[in-house]
Amino acid sequence: MGFFSFLVPVILWHGHFQALRATVMTSSKRLILSLSLAAFFDSIAYVMGEVLPDGVLCNFQAWWLTYFDWCALAWVCCITLNLYLIVVKEIRTDRLELAYHCAAWGVPFMLSCLPLFGDYYGPAGAWCWITDEHVAWRFIIWYIPLFTLIFLMMLCYLRIIYVAKQRVTTWSGTYEPSRERRKVVMAEEIKPLKWYPCVYLAVSLFPLLNRIHNAIFPSQPVFILTLLHVISAPLHGLANAFVFGLDKETWGQLTITSLQLAIQSRFCDSTRIREYQTANVHYVAQIDEEDSESCGDDTIVMVSMPSITLKDKGP
C-alpha cells in the first residue's frame, strides 16, 4: 500500500505538469500539485521497511511521518479555504498562494519538532512515532486537530455547495456568456475537491480507533485493528489518486498520445525563429532572354500575361 501511495503522486505530478504545459495552471491545480508533493514524501516513510529500534533513524522516521502527514492535511485545508474564498466570498486568491505555502510547510514543521524536544518519538507499532508512554501527545499533536479540521472543512464544503447551487440556479440582470461559463466551471471544480476531507476521514478512522484502544488497553492489542491501521494509514496518496481521477479534464491529459507529445516537445523541440529579407520584385509586360540575364540573383520577375491586369505595379 505504501508503494502505491509512493508511485501514484509521481503520476499526479506528471499529469499536472502536462496540464501546465498545455494551459495556464489554475490556482486549484497548483494547490493539488503541492498536495501530491506532500503525499509523495509522506509515503517514503511507509516503505522504509522493518520496525526500527529506538535511535536517530527511528526518531527521523517518526518526525518525517508527523511532518508530511501534517503537510498533506494542511494542503487539504488550504484547498478548502481557497475554494471557500472564491465561491462564498468572491475573492481572488492568486496573491494568497505564498501565504498558503508558508502555512502548509511551516506550521507542520513546528508541530513535528515539538515531540523531539521531549524525546517522545520512538517505536510505536509498525512504524516509529510517538511512543505508548506519551499517548496524550498523540492526540494533542495529531488526532484532535485532525478530526477538528475535518469537521470544519465539511462545514465549509456544505456552505460552498449551497452557495454554488444558489448561483447556478438563480438568474438576474442581463445574460453574460462569460459569467454563465464561470458558473459551470466553478461547479465542475467543486465536484472533485469536496472529496478530499472525506478521503482523510476514511484513511484516518482505523488508525484513530487503534490508538484509542492502545491508550485504554496498552497491553492488549487487537490484531484486526492493528491490521486495518497498517493497511489504511499509507493510503493517503492512493486515495488522493481516486479523487484526482474524478477530474476528467486533467485525467484526459494522461493518455499515451499526450505523454508522447509531451516527451517529444520536451526533448525534441528544435523550433527556431528567423528573419527573412524579401527579394526585389519587378513587374514587366514581357521578358526576353537578354533582360532575364541582366536581372540580379535577388530579383524576382513577375510576368503579366495579356489576360491579367495589374492595378498596382509597385516595386
From TrEMBL:
Key words, A-Z: G-protein coupled receptor, Membrane, Receptor, Transducer, Transmembrane, Transmembrane helix
GO cellular component annotations of the record: plasma membrane
Classification via Pfam families: Dicty_CAR
InterPro entries: GCR1-cAMP_receptor, GPCR_2-like_7TM, GPCR_GCR1_put
Cell membrane listed as a keyword: no
Keyword Transmembrane helix: yes
Residue stretches spanning the membrane: 31-49, 61-86, 98-117, 137-158, 193-210, 222-246
GO molecular function, one term: G protein-coupled receptor activity
Main location: membrane
Membrane topology of this protein: Multi-pass membrane protein
Subcellular location: Membrane
Ranges of residues in domain G-protein coupled receptors family 2 profile: 1-163
GO biological process, one term: cell surface receptor signaling pathway
Name of this protein: Cyclic AMP receptor-like protein A isoform X3
